[in-house]
Amino acid sequence: ILQIVAEGNTIICELLRLKDYVPELFYLKTKEEQQKYGEIIKDFGYFQIADAQEAKIEADEKLRLIDEELRENYIVTLNRFYIVFESIHKYVKDLNTFIDELNTGLFIQQSMEKVFQDAEGKQLMCEALYLYGMMLLVADLHIPGIVRERILVSYNRYSALKTHSDSSIDEVCKLLRATGFNDGAVGSNGGSMGRKLASYPEDFFARVPISPLYIEMVIGRLRSDDVYNQIAVYPLPEQHSTALANQAGMLYVCLFFSPKTLHNQSARMREIVDKFFSNNWIVSLYMGITINLINSWEPFKAAKTALTNTLDNANLKEICHRQKQSMDTLLTRTRNILREGSLTEQNLLDHMPKVMALVRDCNITVRWIMLHTSSVSSTLDTASAAASKRCRQVRELIEQEIEFRGVVFFELLLNTSQLELKVREMLKRLLEERDDRWADYRREATDRMQDLADAFSGAKPFVKTRKNESLSRCFANIRKEIDGLSREEKRLSQTGRT
């Protein structure tokens, strides 16, 4: 499962790299491009008329020359795109195979329940499903469906590359055919334009069936457990939604594998919203990809109803009031601590918990304000105009209630980054110098113990100091113990005594 998850992250990284290399020609944006290349760059409608279309190209000298030009210019790019598309299908096949083998007892003394009981196993099992969902969303977001179809058809026509995967091009095409999302600005020569998004993305996620038991166990763990043990780092109750933010993004994606939960299970959705989305509704999914729940959950009755309390105006004003107070307080505190001479190494060591709590609070506040006041529309929004209007109203209400000013927020952002940098540099320097400092302090301690031992030995009489052999031996022994200590000494207690 670790290898599967590693492959999943690799596939998403490759998709994010390739999104900048999608051939512009395959969008067929202009009428000139459609007229010139429309007979050659086809969507999946090509497969129904393949023989006739190939004959047409062969019979027309102009089309044949254009076809050869496209083959020569784009064959390498098409191969690379097909490999990553095929990898997505291979990933879900490998995941299904692993789940089947786990359920059939192929792994001795291991079962799905036991894997989920293990802390790391639970994380990997949840990530495996989440990453598959993210692959599909990233592919659909950055490479429009109609363009994917044209790339796959062109690859099928041009490439003689044979991959070593068990996935056939038919299966890859079925998985990655156009969904209708993100196709609006793409020109079409017939085929995939104008599809409704009534069941997006749940129908997209269901194209390759995955074990319902596995899906339910993943959702159950993400819903009820602190999968990454973050609550301990964010101890205050109002910080729990931030502590579980990464887990909330995973749960959001995985819920689309179980649309009945979003549609019908009101109690479960209410529990999810109360735990993960009680004071936030903009979810960060992966590498800057965000989603607005007001839009995204609009078609789902149970999910939309569960979100009602969070989006109540009174609750929104209460949340904004807390965020405004937090921003004002943190701005003052960061200004004070960043004054020249305020943050020294000794002060940092003496007040480490307070400084780290300040850094944490700054990041929590900056994150919330940045997400919820952004005027950039969410990258995966597919909902109605009414939902979009509601999103705009909520954002305007937030900006009004917290009296949002970009300059003030930017100052808090800069102060936070400067404080983090200073703390990081100080801690880095302390770690680099700890061996030398340890040696210096140990040498100083042994010298002082030796002075005390000499003072009571009578060999070096001090004023008003009487000879005391017992104290002399005691200090001499302490000196030997100090001299024999190492920085990694396991027997040291919190007071430094052995």
UniProtKB/TrEMBL annotation:
UniProt GO cellular component terms: endosome; WASH complex
Pfam families tied to this protein: Strumpellin
InterPro entries: WASH_strumpellin (IPR019393)
One GO term of the biological process aspect: endosome organization
Domain of life: Eukaryota
Endpoints of the signal sequence: none
Similarity-based family: Belongs to the strumpellin family.
PANTHER family listed in its UniProt record: WASH COMPLEX SUBUNIT 5 (PTHR15691:SF6)
Protein's name according to its UniProt entry: WASH complex subunit strumpellin
